[in-house]
Here is the input.
Amino acid sequence: MSALTPTTSAVGSSNEFARWRTIDIIVVAILAVAFGVVFWAWNAYVWVWLKPFGEPWEYIITGVWVMPAVVAPLIVRKPGAALFAEMVAAIVSVLLGSQWGLDTLLSGFVQGAGAELVFGFVMYRSFGPIVAFIAGAGAGIGEALHDIPVYFPTYGANLQFGIAALEIASGAVIAGIGGWLLVRSLRRTGALQAFPSGR
Amino acid sequence: MSLLPAPIAAVRPDFLTRVTPVARLVAGIAWLVAAIATLDPIVPIRLTIAAIVALVLWSGLPLRRIPRRLAPLGFAILSLTAFSILLSGTNADRSLIAIAEFGPIRLTAPAVSAGLAVGLRVVVIGLTTLLVFGPSDPTRMADSLVQQWRLPDRFAYGTLAALRVAPFMADDWIAIAAARRLRGLQAKSPAARIRDTRDRLLVMLVASIRRAERLALAMDARGFDSGIRRTHFRALRMTWRDWLTIAVGLAVAVASLVLPH
Here is the structure.
């Protein structure tokens, strides 16, 4: 080993694949902050106008809320990226004053965990559109598991199933496929060259 | 000028500003759990009263700014309450007496009471959030999570560094719009506006990734990833105030659940 080898390689050599470099942490955190800002704008300007128009419009687009959980792992390809990104995005929207407040931390956790399990299932080795689609659906399942007992406990069972189905489909299409397309666009701009996904 | 709202932060030291953030977080989560554990509206009503008392007496927050900040919350509460009552499964139960009927719509007492409980949950969540995050800044929250909950420090401080970038993103957003206008890219139809927003978001994300790369490089140059054990500039220790906050917070949560009507 030359004297120029960074000290970090000694720390990370046991599991270079799972180790997060500073750039991985910062890029995921900053992307999550960007999404957190988008969520805040979404909550404050879009959601409040959509909700009074009634069901089921709101649930068709809930996939927007789980995009970080798909986009971050597709970019950095590290274990924990889905959970970390979704939690940071949740914290940012809380700090900006999301009406869901503290509860965003709970929903962010289950949404991130839903996507994380899917990427974990393929051992963080496959990041194509199909895995992204299923991960988006996984995040949607997490979202439904949180939203139904917390916000829709009084609804009839048919409606609850309907909401769950829409949230899962929305997660799969908007966050899954939409997230995959977004990462493809980012790669084409050359912005991802520091990551395995950009090469 | 920034597009982002200024956070509601403490304007004077008070009891809760001297309490470590994780203690407030534990108490806040206990209230959140209590509020969502039941469909009896008395529980969120009690917690709302407790939260208002704590906000007024101990939070040090600028009370006058709170109502405006909570305006979207008001909207959320109204629509959520209305839909929770209207779409309640118990309305279809013919064995229950309807308290109101308009044509095919019929409302039962349990539906109304449970709907109110769901709406009030959001009130409790909003007020509790102010009590947890308002009295101190994100830096103290990160310090507290790293030192007292042993969260991985690189992730906590990396997030803190990223949070600092949020105002620049809002500036980027405006600059991108100006640049597009200068190049004659103007969206008129609603569909074109959606496409325009999407394109602006992509440019903003690219700018954010570039910024993240520069920031990571600067942090590494200062030994952020040196692997040397981190020491702390602001050492936090649990004091009697922290334990008292946790104890009272948990006691209020339990009491609001179990006290008879």
Notes: The longest strand of chain B covers residues 98-102. Chain B touches chain A through 70 residues (CB under 8 Å).
